[in-house]
Amino acid sequence: MRSQLRWRLCWENELQLADHIELADFFRKTYGPTGAFNGKPFAGNRSWAGARPELRAIGYDSRGVAAHMGLLRRFIKVGEVDQLVGELGLYGVRPDLEGLGISLSFRVVYPVLQELGVPFAFGTVRHALRNHIERFFRDDLATIVSGVRVRSTQAEVYPDLPPTRLEDVLVVVLPVTRPMSDWPTGAIIDRNGPEL
């Protein structure tokens, strides 16, 4: 039987060193199995990979951190339009709870998005997660925007990598205070910064 999750919403400046240590360990264990490089950003006490979130929804159970979703308000450029969004990222769920994490964490974060007054929530996921995302959003809560690539700056500057990357990922948009019909069109979304 799965344990009951207790959610904590916290601003980034409310986290203590012990929180970052616990979250870094959670992300190494969660992202590491998806590829050796994926767990690397969480070395030491670092609990973020690219852009640092401003708000976190952290789910705990008797074993510690069970799920996480980060939120960062930012302007992205969609085609030629500067669009304010609440970017959702740093999503993770412990393997024994898969199937519950995204729906639970989103239910915790959505009221915060409404309070913040952002028109849309925006996130990206790998194509391999399409079925998982579609199952969660089968009630038309969110839209997967196809045929769009996303440009981001690299989180770190490496001499052998370009300063930006252009990715073919699934773009997920959730209307918050404006309808999906107001989402701008464009073949490229520019984060003008690193991925959350």
Largest sheet: 10 strands, mixed
How far apart, in Å, are the first and last alpha carbons? 32 Å
Structural class: alpha+beta
| Total discrete domains | 1
Whole-number mean pLDDT: 87
Radius of gyration, in angstroms, nearest whole number: 16 Å
Query: Which percent range describes the beta-strand content?
Result: 25-35%
Stretches where pLDDT falls below 50 for ≥5 residues?
Answer: none
Order of helices and strands: EHHEEEHEHEEEEE
Number of strands: 10
Q: What is the 3D form?
A: globular
The CATH architecture is 3-Layer(aba) Sandwich
Q: If you consult CATH, what is the topology?
A: Aminopeptidase
CATH superfamily: Gcn5-related N-acetyltransferase (GNAT)
Helix content: 10-25%
CATH class: Alpha Beta
Instruction: Give the number of helices.
Output: 4
EC number: 2.3.1.-
Keywords: Acyltransferase, Cytoplasm, Nodulation, Transferase
Enzyme class: transferase
Subcellular location: Cytoplasm
Summarize the structure.
With 196 residues, this protein is α+β, with helices and mostly antiparallel strands.
Q: Would you mind describing this structure in some detail?
A:
The protein is α+β, with helices and mostly antiparallel strands. It has one domain: Gcn5-related N-acetyltransferase (GNAT) (Aminopeptidase), CATH 3.40.630. 21% of the residues lie in helices and 35% in strands. It has four helices and ten strands; from the N terminus they run E-H-H-E-E-E-H-E-H-E-E-E-E-E. The protein has helices at residues 17-31, 36-39, 101-116, 130-136, and strands at 6-11, 55-61, 64-78, 81-93, 120-125, 143-145, 149-153, 164-167, 170-175, 188-190. Strands 1, 2, 3, 4, 5, 6, 7, 8, 9 and 10 form a ten-stranded mixed β-sheet that branches. The longest helix has 16 residues, at 101-116. The radius of gyration is 16 Å and the shape is globular. The two termini are 32 Å apart. The mean pLDDT is 87. Its main location: cytoplasm. It is found in: Cytoplasm.
